[in-house]
Amino acid sequence: MKIASWNVNSLNVRLPHLEQWLADFAPDVVGIQETKLEDHKFPDTRLLELGYRNVFAGQKTYNGVALLSRDPIEDVQIGIPGFEDEQKRVIAGTVNGVRIINLYVVNGQDVGTDKYAYKLRWLAAVHDWIAAELQKHPQLVVMGDFNIAPDARDVYDPAVWDENHILTSTAERGALQKLLELGLHDGFRLHNEDGGIFSWWDYRAAGFRRDLGLRIDLTLVSDALKPRALASGIDREPRTWERPSDHAPAWVQLAQG
User: Fold this and answer.
1) Is 207 within 8 Å of 236 (Cβ atoms)?
2) Of 39, 44, 95, 151, which residue is most buried, by most CB within 10 angstroms?
3) Where on this chain does Mg(2+) bind (predicted)?
4) Active-site residue, 247 included
């Protein structure tokens, strides 16, 4: 069961890329972030033609999340229960007994801003919800664009991306660590200890060509799924295509349960 996460940074622009990547990589389940499409514009029929059932929650211009799956998606949840938020950042469903939560975590703009405070409140609400989900669904994957680089290995320059910088600040990394302490494991780190492997590169300053990246797209697996995690990685190929998303897909492969 190959499960992937990709921030496509506008599905309207990147649909041809998604179509090509689905054909080439053949994932079983995909979580998409930043669709930037209202629901009536979501290409559900086209994705069904490609063999992927889909559920989605979108809005105009910003945010937007979706789950695609070769198999039925059950028990769909949109948004964080009990947390009022107009931004479409969360969608969850169950596929073949595995609960899958797809997150587009708040960016936060800059440390100390109102958006940063919102990010920390949002992460606290996600933590409490996932704690409850784990009680109901021990076989759980949490994936998405986390907008947090877990540690110094996950940034191109730790002197710049330090404890006072957005995406790497002490409070953000602490919130991610609290999530892991619920019984989640960074799928990538189960198989890759090296630094300098990234999932996001800024469009500016030739960021991709110079490999000035961050690893902020994560696939977290629960204690119950950890023994089934056979492989994981980041597929850089779509980042090389013309007019790419600034993110590359992150993935984890599970043995059949």
Assistant:
1) no
2) 95
3) 7, 34, 145, 147, 246-247
4) yes
